[in-house]
Design brief:
Blueprint (H helix, E strand, L loop, with lengths): L2 H8 L24 H5 L26 H5 L1 E2 H14 L4 E5 L12 E2 L9 E2 L3 E4 L5 E9 L13 E5 L11 E4 L3 E4 L4 E4 L9 E2 L10 E3 L7 H9 L4 E5 L3 E7 L3 E2 L9 E2 L3 H10 L3 E9 L2 H10 L4 E5 L10 H7 L3 E5 L1 E4 L5 E4 L5 E5 L3 H19 L9 E3 L11 E9 L2 E4 L9 H4 L3 E5 L9 E6 L19
Parallel strand pairs: 1-20, 6-7, 14-17, 14-18, 15-16, 18-22, 20-24
Antiparallel strand pairs: 2-13, 3-12, 4-11, 5-7, 5-8, 6-10, 9-10, 19-21, 21-22, 23-27, 24-25, 24-26, 26-27
Helix pairs in contact: 4-9, 7-8
Bound molecules: ligand LQZAQKY5 and molybdate ion.
Pathway: Cofactor biosynthesis; molybdopterin biosynthesis
EC number: 2.10.1.1
Protein name: Molybdopterin molybdenumtransferase
Length: 475
Amino acid sequence: MTGRDSQSAAAPGNEQPPGPSAGAAPPDTGDLDGVDEALALVGPRPDDGTGPAADPVPPTGGGPGPHRRRAAAWPAARARAGQAGHAAVPRTRRVPLDEALGQVLAEPLAALCDLPSFDTSAMDGWAVAGPGPWTLRGDGSILAGHGDSGPLPDGTAVRIATGARIPPETTAVIRSEHARVDAAAQQLHADREVTPGQDIRPRGQECRTGDRLLPALAVVTPPVLGLAAAAGYDELLTFARPRVEILVLGDELLASSLPHDGLIRDALGPMIGPWLRALGAEVLATRRLGDDAEALHRAVTTSEADVVVTTGGTAAGPVDHVHPVLRKAGAELLVDQVAVRPGHPMLLARLATGKYLVGLPGNPLAAVSGLLTLAEPLLRGLAGRPAPAPYSAPVKDEVHGHPHDTRLVPVVHRDDQLVPLHYNGPAMLRGTAAADGLAVVPPGGARAGDELEVLDLPWATLAPWTPSDTGRCFT
Ligand SMILES: Nc1nc2c(c(=O)[nH]1)N[C@H]1C(S)=C(S)[C@@H](COP(=O)(O)OP(=O)(O)OC[C@H]3O[C@@H](n4cnc5c(N)ncnc54)[C@H](O)[C@@H]3O)O[C@H]1N2
Ligand code: MOO
């Protein structure tokens, strides 16, 4: 990013909520190498005129009156979206293990075999029968994967590998490092006392056939895949991923190259699909429809998806077609505006077909807000996934709030604290791109040290760098 770019990003917009963590950039300090500025950590900053006295954001929906009354409180909106998802009858599918990651089990995982399925050597060493010393059985080693090697007569020993079947009549396994071979006498001597059963994993130690290993609704994680395979599964019965179609609205959007002549790049087409996939959805398509009410009506009423997600067109501008199209399509509005900043024009509707539509506002961070407020709980419900327990963490710096509405503010976790990020204005993604979560700031704001609920971003644990990693170039 060039100095000029960062200055233009820093210009305080009149759509910002007031206060130190509002979307405007920090003042030009001149001595930054650009990285902290680009990552935009919010700290206390001098009064730049956007402080609490100025609240240029109208309360909700562009003004007081009917809009304000219509807006659902943020927690209520999330709850309603989750309920809508859970109300739908989930589709189940039997899928091969390598397609099941991240899905939810639609039935308990019951062991299809004993684990271990035979008495197994836990160590490389010697299988012995009875008290020593033992005469060496002269037929080589028993290796993992070998079949039945016949019983071990009392007073004999045979070499055995970790994971190999224990021969019948074996009383113990002695680790190689705990025994000596008398080659001349062809005998094995133990260096220490031998306890019956030592280093033998008995059949069924972990589970018996039919034991319930995991309940229905467990999320399929990599260890679940491993456990399922060990317990004999080739496929798992899971709730199908909800199918989503994304309709990107706006004649002003370019799919490539640089902005020109009032046209801008589509920031949501490339972002929403991958984000929804990270939330467990199957994305059927992302289509750009421009500002064409007819095309939108056709797309909404003929979509094969369980959930249609639109971007833009949720407000009341001359080409904002989402509400009129939903009316014409006979849809029922379940949530129409939410008392949250950014993103308050977001909506959730049930279509005449029983499928759902999530209308995300066009401003990019407002769309993220709609994604986390409505799409995430809806998809979670449709996929049969339980809600994660909410968690909170102390915020490092003061964060000004909206007088009436919840704010969602991009943050990074650092030293067990949440550090709010700049560039959090409705039209900006720069703060969110550096974030690992969004903090939920209640109406009225938060003081340094206050605990705030955090919505983790799905890739939070994958981030290869943190904003303290100032050694990297951020271009
Ligand atoms: N009179 C009022 N006007 C607006 C209000 C209001 O309360 N009263 N609310 C503002 C807020 S807040 C938002 S958010 C937007 C929501 O509007 P729409 O959902 O109808 O979105 P658009 O008008 O289509 O676009 C808004 C903004 O976002 C840009 N945009 C749209 N799509 C994309 C995209 N795919 N990639 C990048 N940028 C996109 C678009 O060009 C506009 O700048 O309404 C406000 N107006
Ligand atoms: O405040 Mo809007 O919902 O721009 O983002």
